[in-house]
Every structure is written in C-alpha cells, then in structure tokens.
Amino acid sequence: MPEWFRRKTNKINTTSKKDIREGAWLKCSNCGNVLSRRILDEKFNCCSSCNFHFKMNPDQYVELLFDKSKELWLDIESQDPLNFIASKSYKEQLEKYNESSNGTDAVRIFSGKIKNLEMTLCVMDFSFIGGSMGSVVGEKISRAITLSQDKSIPLVIICSSGGARMQEGAISLMQLAKICSKLSEFSSKSNLLITILTDPTMGGTTASYAMLGDVIIAEPNALIGFAGQRVIKQTIGEELPEGFQRAEFLKKHGFIDEIISRDKMKETLSNLIKFFNKKRTAN
What is the reported pTM? Predict the structure, then answer.
C-alpha cells in the first residue's frame, strides 16, 4: 500500500460532540430551512425565513391573544353512544387523547381580556382526534355563544378541524344545526362573531360556524374547504386551479375577509372589537 494512502492516526484529532436535546431543531416544510424550536416559539410558530405558519395548540393561542384569561367547562367529556369499535374502541381513543391533552376534547373555551377588551374565545385543538366535531364540541361552543350573548361581548372562534366525528355518528352531525341555530339568535341581537380559519379547516366546521362570522379571518396558506381535492376532482371531472382551497385563493374569490399573520393577530382583533363596540354603542 502506498505511503501516502496510509491513515496517520497520530495527526487526527477528535472532539466529543455536545449533546443536542432531541427536538430542539425543526425543518420548515415550506422553505426547507432548519429552525430553532426556541426561536420558533418566540415567533408564535412562524418560520423566520418564509413566514410559514406551523400549527399551534390552544395554550399558544391564548398566550398570543389574551392579557389574562380563565378556562371554562373543563368537566365536560365525550361519551360513547354507539359503542363504536374499529381498530381501537372509541373509549380507548378518548382515554388516550385525554391523557395527552390539557383539555377534555377538541375545543377549549376561554374568557378573558385582549387589550382590556372582554371577549370569549373558542380554540379548536387539531391534536385531539383531528379537531373533529363531536357532542362536546357542540355543547362547549353553544355554551360560549350563550355566555357571550348574556354578557354582550364578542365571540372569537379559532377553527382547526378535519370535520365531523364519525365515532358519534348522527349525534356529531346534529352539532352543526345546534351551533348554527344558536349563532342565528346571537347574530339577531347584534353581537359580534369573528372566526379565524387555520390550517386545516375542513368538513362540517367549514359547513357551519367557520363561515358564519361577521368577520372571517384566515392565517396565511391555511387549507380551507369542505371535501378533499381528490373527491372534488373526481366529482366534477376537471383539473382544479393552482392553490385551490388555500386562504389566498378564497380571499381572491370573496370567501374570507382578510389574511392576517400571527404577529398582527392580537392588534387586528382588538381594533375590530373596538370598531364594532363603538358602532353598536352609536346605534
């Protein structure tokens, strides 16, 4: 073997790598940049390079929007009316998600103040069975509507859902009518409803309260729709436009009012509430 090919171990210095905590870094699924979890948290889960909005949990939205808040109705839990069993029973699913979640279902309700303005906030949690609408979601949002109506304060709903919860069958579908009827009464009293559509907002959520807001806001590039693109494409037999069902496409075609980045969300909400409070007082 030639002398130049031999490894000279005495000239090779090695140093031990510093331990890096698992999950401390995350690759942006939009631009590919590697992001620090710490910096990502500081920027409300938005990529510092391309402003891609990662999913946030209810606690993070509360931190983003409220000055101070209180969570309501923590004792409501889903039942298993159909005794539903697939690969895993519905009861087992609920036990699993209740253990890993701070809430008891796919929506959490908060009462508090945003820049000294009182409001009720409903935040859907996509990590709880895909943010699916079941009996608890319908009951909690209905109670939030009643609370806001009784106190004459704005109601804000942050939507993130895959649709109805099949494990509860027709009971899940009934929540759409239940919430919509409550919102009809709420609106007739000149109360303010603001809906914020995040990625994804699909199925029964879109078919009901998500699109009933007096003001409809969306986060950038949020997926918003009823049925999936493949189903629509097969139904109409045509190619779908680029960016179909994304927030920017829906704003262009008049389905939503504005696209707001998270760093401007608190300011935007407080300005909207101030504006409509003054208008209501004037009338």
Answer: 0.89
